Amino acid sequence: MNATLTLEQQVIKSIVRRARAAAHRLGTLPDKIRRDALNTAADALLSRKAEILSANVLDTRAAMDLVQQHRLSSASIARLKTTEQTILDMVLRVRTVAALPDPIGSVLEATELDRGLRLYRVSCPIGVIAVVFESRPDVIPQIASLTLRAGNVVIFKGGREAAHTNWVLNRIWCDALAEFPEIPPNTVNLLKTRDEVAALLDLEEGIDLVIPRGSKEFVRHISSKTRFPVLGHGEGVCHVYVDRSANLAKALDIAFDSKVQYPAACNSMETLLVHRDVATTFLPDIVNRFLAANVEMRGCTETIALIADKEIVLASEEDWSTEYSELIVSIRIVDNDTQAIEHIQRYGSGHTEAIVTEDHHVAQRFTDSIDAAGVYVNASTRFADGYRYGMGAELGISTGKLHARGPVGLQGLTSYKYKLFGDGHTVASYTSGERQFKHRRL
Amino acid sequence: MNATLTLEQQVIKSIVRRARAAAHRLGTLPDKIRRDALNTAADALLSRKAEILSANVLDTRAAMDLVQQHRLSSASIARLKTTEQTILDMVLRVRTVAALPDPIGSVLEATELDRGLRLYRVSCPIGVIAVVFESRPDVIPQIASLTLRAGNVVIFKGGREAAHTNWVLNRIWCDALAEFPEIPPNTVNLLKTRDEVAALLDLEEGIDLVIPRGSKEFVRHISSKTRFPVLGHGEGVCHVYVDRSANLAKALDIAFDSKVQYPAACNSMETLLVHRDVATTFLPDIVNRFLAANVEMRGCTETIALIADKEIVLASEEDWSTEYSELIVSIRIVDNDTQAIEHIQRYGSGHTEAIVTEDHHVAQRFTDSIDAAGVYVNASTRFADGYRYGMGAELGISTGKLHARGPVGLQGLTSYKYKLFGDGHTVASYTSGERQFKHRRL
């Protein structure tokens, strides 16, 4: 043992070394084994649900003590709590991922470079993925199924509040995989302590991707602690713009759904933009619907002047770039779609932006001009979600523009390699002019 | 002006703000304008070649003084020197990029989520890309054509040695783009000082991607200075493995080409692995060819024992992971393909790995097991190159596994967005069970 390493560093080095070895083997496993293993894991979650529920009782009780001591919010109990229904949901999601088409080994591109020299771009696993998450224990089956489906090894570190539940879920998962001799041990790993995750994030090499799941502060914290690439859930300052040509019945439904259906989600609307020409007809109606749903409103001066009889406070400059994540909405009247686009370009976080319009040209201008992971026409921002997009499940929604953007599913867990098949081909024969490239798409 | 900002920080903030505004407009330009602009820029390079050559004389003279003072290597003169032929090559590359299919606006995936609710994943530009490069002035036309073809704004910072040539190339390029009123100014930008690039790398936001072009130390240096995503050319410790079933004539050509054709390239071979069963027949021949080409050889003990009459030094442990980038090769005899794969997994840098074999199963095992950007069967490692792959040009070769892997061309300069078209659809009607998702691939 190296005397200069702490105990945690030694543990982590050993875990990562074995994880890398597992990744080398996992990348070559046939689809059927990965799929069967997921279905076996789903069965195990169901048949061992009593163990999950007992462990969760321990976690929930400890958490309730912390809530009474005001050291934990009562909302975290709701996130932590696992029920029979939660387990059924977990099982369903694992089976859904098992049923998705194999993301590995797809030929993404094929080119004949020259006679007898063929190039294939083929999807492959990324390798070893570290997932650091806060309390929700359903993260383990959800992400373990996505990572295994795409041939990756995963190293989890969960929140302390869910330690018992996470331990049991990981145990059930590893036991299920152990029924398959082809699947290497250490395909799924669970770290125990904060010092271990700190040692992992501090490594020079060995981890291909870090996925933090939690608040934006949590994502930022993890990103600042590591040299590895981080794929983090992005902040959502999403807008709905109601154009002059909007069908106002649709606009009412879309604005209401975008704000009220689940305001804590990153894809819920924070700011409503309304074209001046429809403000007098549309605003009173949506304000009434928002009031009935206890939505607090903060408006521009014109909005307040227009809705003088209702309680709307003046929006500050800060309001326009705030992700409320609760039943608060800011409202601004704009002159035209250009001003709406400029507002979104300035204050939006590049997550999901919607326009309500019946004008095809305005819709096209909006979707082309707005630089966001999702640009929607006549649909609620709340559709930004891996399950709703048909990905089966998601790792999170990325507002970054590299690798994966928007809801990240199986595809975001793959890379690709170029396979080149020749017959003794050398580059010298091309530089000498003896041979020429064809570059024919196959 | 903000008193707490340095002059460079003020300059950079202003450049980046205008670059972002340009990116918003550039992303919506039709293909024809971007293509025509590139052909106009190519014409301008040709018609203003005298200006380029005069500027380059200034740079080369200053560099020769530095060489005489031993403050610059003579190899850098070769990289710096621009001739009529270099300009013709630049022009040809710009025209090649102009002729490539539009990488923007492609529908990568289309799904009907439900009746009247259609989701499209559409390729789009990344945004603002900073390119920091060492002396070669041909970087400006090559990368400016790739970035514009993909609808991106670029901010260059070149090496001081090529300052005059870079200035003229940038001037010609901007003048050519100025003939197109649709193309925003600040589409191509050139920074002047190191302090400016330091201020840019230190920004909190505004740059979508940083591309360093230069040595691996340079790439590492740039990466350590910025929070922005970096797409860097990777180190190349590439192998050729000659299997027992290899056609030895092909093996000779491939091993020789991989090492000798251009040893300074990252895709040249550093280590030759030879199956024990063919070592006695193959090694004497390749050793003779290497000796004739002045290749220095470092072998394992068995290699040295086998080639006792020739000058081969014993390879140290360090040799196996060294990117020589010159006419040096390390040679190891292995027991079988498993040992070859293990050697490559341990010492390879994930760049390009080749096997010479006539055995289909061994070839498949090799290409499936090796985790590298390129895995080749019976072809020289030197084929790892954007031009040879049919990409027209490349930004570099990535050994990272996220976003773009291997030679990075136009596709690596794009992101995507999800466009969703509905008819007033809300998520509440799906969670209530009133409607169900179809998820039908279109």
Shape of chain A: globular
Strand order of the largest sheet of chain A: 10-9-11-8-7-12-13
Number of domains of chain A: 2
SS elements, strand count of chain A: 17
Mean pLDDT of chain A: 94
CATH uppermost class of the largest domain in chain A: Alpha Beta
Helix content of chain A: 40-55%
List keywords for this structure.
15 helices, 7-stranded parallel sheet, homodimer, 442 residues, globular, Aldehyde Dehydrogenase, Chain A, domain 1, alpha/beta, Aldehyde Dehydrogenase, Chain A, domain 2
Outline the structure in words.
Two copies of one chain form a homodimer. Chain A has 442 residues and is an alpha/beta fold. Chain A has two domains: 7-233 and 409-417, Aldehyde Dehydrogenase, Chain A, domain 1; 238-383, Aldehyde Dehydrogenase, Chain A, domain 2 (3-Layer(aba) Sandwich), CATH 3.40.309.10. Helices cover 42% and strands 21% of the residues of chain A. Chain A contains 15 helices and 17 strands. The first copy, chain A, has helices spanning 7-26, 31-47, 49-68, 74-80, 84-99, 139-149, 163-178, 194-201, 216-224, 248-260, 276-292, 301-306, 337-347, 360-369, 428-431; strands at residues 107-114, 117-125, 128-133, 153-157, 188-190, 209-213, 238-242, 269-275, 296-299, 313-314, 328-334, 352-356, 374-379, 396-398, 406-408, 414-425, 440-441. The radius of gyration of chain A is 25 Å and the shape is globular. At the A-B interface, β2, α10, α14, β13 and β16 of A face β2, α10, α14, β13 and β16 of B.
